[in-house]
Amino acid sequence: MKAVLLTSLFALIAMVAQADPFLNPPETYAPVWYTPFPYQRNIDMGFGTSPVATANPNGIPDAVYEGTLDPSLWPSDYVLLTGSVSWYGTISGITQTGLIGIDNRGGSSTLTGTAIFHIDNVDDNLPLKDVWLEVLSITGGTGGGYATQVFDPNNNLFNYLGNRGGVNMITTYNGDTVADGEWQSSPNPVYETVKLTFSVPAGGYELIDQYHIATECVPEPATFSLLALGGLALLWRRRS
């Protein structure tokens, strides 16, 4: 009975702790993910208020932070919207609320712009940095699209690893299109910049309903495996 109660308690704690889980968590779907929830950085942006703010001590407005390093790093996170990319509380004819992107249904030419997410990090001199991105978006009218890139402080591109099997997995959820993918840098940078570049023709719209970011810094995979085996060996010695 005691074991059952403890198991139930741990399950309840896990459910409460992970208030905003990924629809497709990286430990299940990413090609090379190593660390479990709550991850290093874990930022879920629902855009209920404009994400753009300056010197915000609470990080990105309306974001849910659950990562282990988030409390020390969120004051330096920020979002920039450029060109025709805007924040919308509500949009006529669209059910979802709290959106960023471009609504060009009344336009006469293609509109472009960017959404830039600055995600801070610690300089821990580890060889690898993994970033998992989950985007819930809406495309309509004559269509539209966005491209995702991740940069280090020297403007070097992260390597795109894809999703399960190296292919970007796209599903749907509550009327949104869900896309997930993993990016990797070597070595670990002191911060990363996630850049969404939008292009929407006249009569179309491309809008982001939710944006969820997780990061991890890890040793080289061989070293990580040795560390894991060392931990198991210690557990075995303590049990014997």
How does this model look, in words?
The protein has 240 residues and is of the alpha+beta class. The chain has one domain (27-239): Jelly Rolls. It has four helices and 13 strands. The protein has helices at 2-17, 26-29, 70-73, 221-239; strands at residues 41-45, 63-65, 78-83, 86-88, 99-103, 111-120, 128-141, 145-151, 159-162, 169-173, 176-185, 191-200, 204-218. The strands form two sheets. Strands 1, 2, 4, 5, 7, 9, 10, 11 and 13 form a nine-stranded antiparallel sheet that branches. The longest helix has 19 residues, at 221-239.
What keywords describe this structure?
disordered N terminus; nine-stranded antiparallel sheet; Jelly Rolls; alpha+beta
Helix tally equals: 4
Overall shape: globular
CATH topology category name: Jelly Rolls
**Class by alpha and beta content:** alpha+beta
Note the run of SSEs as H and E. Answer: HHEEHEEEEEEEEEEEH
* Largest sheet report: 9 strands, antiparallel
CATH class: Mainly Beta
Beta-strand segment tally:
13
State the end-to-end distance.
25 Å
Low-confidence stretches: 1-16, 223-240
Question: What is the compact description of this entry?
Answer:
The protein has four helices and 13 strands.
Describe the secondary structure blueprint for this structure.
Layout: H1 2-17, H2 26-29, E1 41-45, E2 63-65, H3 70-73, E3 78-83, E4 86-88, E5 99-103, E6 111-120, E7 128-141, E8 145-151, E9 159-162, E10 169-173, E11 176-185, E12 191-200, E13 204-218, H4 221-239
Antiparallel strand pairs: 1-2, 1-13, 3-6, 4-5, 5-13, 6-12, 7-11, 7-13, 8-12, 9-11, 10-11
